Amino acid sequence: MTQHTTTPDGLVIVDKPSGFTSHDVVAKMRGIARTRRVGHAGTLDPMATGVLVLGVERATKLLGHLALTEKEYLGTIRLGQTTVTDDAEGEISASADASGVTREAIDKGVAELTGRIMQVPSKVSAIKINGVRSYKRAREGEEFDIPARPVTVSSFVVHDVREAVAEDGTPVCDLVVSVVCSSGTYIRALARDLGAGLGVGGHLTALRRTRVGPYRIDTARTLEQLQKELTVMPVAEAATAAFPRWDVDARRARLLLNGVRLEMPDEYADGGPVAVFGPEGVLLALVEPLKGKAKSLAVFG
């Protein structure tokens, strides 16, 4: 990680505050980094906090190719109340006494939501149904169904069970959970489905993303910290962390930058994107194998 006074070029791992949309964070970063060229990978709901990966300047070219397929979360699920948004942002639509729910029943419900499952995203999610975002349809009071999608929940662990009383006097149950899942998994949909399966309803009251792909919360910085000292993972370092590395000599580097498709070594022939470095460790391009040749995905040199 390096600190910058001029416009940086690389990834910024932000610890997103609650109440900010991912786009709000991008707008903030444009001001901090003094550039319009800022993008983000993997959105995070306004209520949630934690790891949001931003690309600044040339690193925006990396964002679409980063394998951010696995994510880790810490959250709190409230059993006994259902909301219209499946999280604490929405109004309560139903309440039920959850004091009789046993730990055994909770563990059974969690086990049923672990592994490869079919999940129906929340109606207020950003998924498009026939070209229109789901939350827009929901806001306009439209009745519609979202098709279930396959997602993978590789780990769903309940760390603590706390009995509480909600504001409306309902005896509820708060679960502190951690989840490791594939991209596209909705934690609030897990909360909703766990509560529904237990017959008392449920919603998500807090969520913190602690990891996205290889990027962890301990390397993330808050917007306040970044305002004081902009910490950036240089584009070459970011590419090395995320992709296999292929070093080429000066002649091949010239050919590659002139648009020639180089023969790829066998070790990369059937994989995904590969970062190509020239002499002196300069990041030249991101390529992928196509019929044994290197097809450029993004050029940096």
Automatic annotation (TrEMBL):
<dbReference type="InterPro" id="IPR036974">
    <property type="entry name" value="PUA_sf"/>
</dbReference>
<comment type="function">
    <text>Responsible for synthesis of pseudouridine from uracil-55 in the psi GC loop of transfer RNAs.</text>
</comment>
<dbReference type="GO" id="GO:0160148">
    <property type="term" value="F:tRNA pseudouridine(55) synthase activity"/>
</dbReference>
<keyword id="KW-0819">tRNA processing</keyword>
<protein>
    <recommendedName>
        <fullName>tRNA pseudouridine synthase B</fullName>
        <ecNumber>5.4.99.25</ecNumber>
    </recommendedName>
</protein>
<feature type="domain" description="tRNA pseudouridine synthase II TruB subfamily 2 C-terminal">
    <location>
        <begin position="243"/>
        <end position="300"/>
    </location>
</feature>
<dbReference type="InterPro" id="IPR020103">
    <property type="entry name" value="PsdUridine_synth_cat_dom_sf"/>
</dbReference>
<dbReference type="InterPro" id="IPR015225">
    <property type="entry name" value="tRNA_psdUridine_synth_fam2_C"/>
</dbReference>
<feature type="domain" description="tRNA pseudouridylate synthase B C-terminal">
    <location>
        <begin position="188"/>
        <end position="230"/>
    </location>
</feature>
<dbReference type="Pfam" id="PF16198">
    <property type="entry name" value="TruB_C_2"/>
</dbReference>
<comment type="similarity">
    <text>Belongs to the pseudouridine synthase TruB family. Type 1 subfamily.</text>
</comment>
<dbReference type="InterPro" id="IPR032819">
    <property type="entry name" value="TruB_C"/>
</dbReference>
<dbReference type="Pfam" id="PF09142">
    <property type="entry name" value="TruB_C"/>
</dbReference>
<dbReference type="Pfam" id="PF01509">
    <property type="entry name" value="TruB_N"/>
</dbReference>
<dbReference type="InterPro" id="IPR014780">
    <property type="entry name" value="tRNA_psdUridine_synth_TruB"/>
</dbReference>
<dbReference type="InterPro" id="IPR002501">
    <property type="entry name" value="PsdUridine_synth_N"/>
</dbReference>
<feature type="active site" description="Nucleophile">
    <location>
        <position position="45"/>
    </location>
</feature>
<keyword id="KW-0413">Isomerase</keyword>
<dbReference type="InterPro" id="IPR015947">
    <property type="entry name" value="PUA-like_sf"/>
</dbReference>
<feature type="domain" description="Pseudouridine synthase II N-terminal">
    <location>
        <begin position="31"/>
        <end position="187"/>
    </location>
</feature>
